[in-house]
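DM from R.C. (forwarded with permission)

"hey, sorry to bug you on a friday — could you get me a structure for this? deadline for the figure draft is monday and I only need the backbone to look sensible"
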Amino acid sequence: MKLSLKTAKAAATENDVRWQAVLGRDSAYDGQFYYSVSSTGIYCRPSCAARRPRPEHVSFHDSIEAAEHAGFRPCQRCKPNDATLAEQHVALIANACEMIEQAEHAFTLKQLAQKSGMSSFHFHRLFKSVTGLTPKAYSSAHQLKKMRNGLRHSGSVTEAIFEAGYNANSRFYEKSMAGLGMTPSRFRRGGINTQIRFAVAECSLGSMLVASTAKGICAILLGDDPGQLLHELQDAFPNAELLGGDEGYEETVSRVIGLVEAPAIGLELPLDIQGTVFQHRVWQALRDIPPGETASYTEIAARLGAPRAVRAVASACAANRLAVAIPCHRVVRSDGELAGYRWGIERKRTLLERESNCDDGGQ
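My reply, with the result:
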């Protein structure tokens, strides 16, 4: 039986994942899309508190411009063409981050809150919600970033430490190994005197490079060109001593290949995970996703207590150098579609299919 246009339109709307956001008035989707109502001629944010429209009257738009180009005017209740409170908060915290990054010395929480026109409690909670980090952790991460840059250009390690805003060598050395993966002097020299064992092998996903420091596996790279994978490793540690062709390293490589072929089994080998505080939090959240399951960037941000840090979560996933071991392939868009995989969408699809088959009892 042929459906009427009205019934078909209603069914299409109800089957769109965005309709659930409208029904739930989910503010997390504000700015990601807009919906228009043909019976009123207006367009709204997903969180609009106005009476819910009939699904056959609804259309979705990716931007304000698209909605207005289609002939709709902004709702006077949710004012979709004005900055949301969330957007205002993001702008305020972005300004606070800029103050932290430009300051010669670290601000106290009270000083940052006063400059932002908030109480310390409200500022602290809002800052963590937007960035995923406390103001203190953000400041520490920025200091470490300055330190990483300074180690490459300063005349000495001590000079770089003080230029980064540390008022004592001891304060930096307490955290340096976790952030740099090696001593500051070795990092400054691009990994000089640091041995990194590596091997390039072939697996069902193409070429794969596995590399390890004394601390653990520091890279699992996938690609089509073995030479390009080696260039990536050299760019990360330009002065390290790269040791290839080590027969004793074959067991490690074979275990990583096993992980790629059956990602649900996990990898019980030590990892040398280098990154910022926020990246470490994201990567741990990825490792907490069970094999055969996925989570959206929005869900990961919410689990970290930072629902507005979706872009930062995506950036952390893109910075991951440990394919499969840190399973960024399990992160998908809010609509369930695959996107944003450093080593290619088809590899991501294959890994997810393998985990799903294993979860269903397949091989």
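R.C.: lifesaver. The mean pLDDT is 79.
me: no worries. The beta strands are 34-37, 42-44, 58-61, 73-74, 195-203, 206-212, 217-223, 241-243, 295-296, 331-332.
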